[in-house]
Design brief:
single chain; 105 residues; mainly beta; Ubiquitin-like (UB roll); 4-stranded mixed beta sheet; 6 strands; 35% strand
Amino acid sequence: MTEVRFDGGLVPVVVQQWDTGEVLMLAWMDAEALRRTRETGRATYWSRSRQEYWVKGETSGHGQEVREIRVDCDGDTLLLLVHQQGVACHTGSRTCFEPLADPGA
């Protein structure tokens, strides 16, 4: 099994809806956030801007129930397969990703 490499103490986490494959967001975890996520089954991330842990949905009610955690072959990225409750993005959108206005620019 591949070991998670926390370069600089953090690892990027791609978050995907478990049943549709929809990519919802990108977040960051350190070893403690990963431990909390595995222990509780609720997605817990490290906020680089606030320098604190946050449980997705704790204030908004739009939580993420973790179904599976995968690590990539290099150990430097995680994939969280979740059941998203409500929207994933703080803007109120289902996903944090949207099409570029002009992808050729």
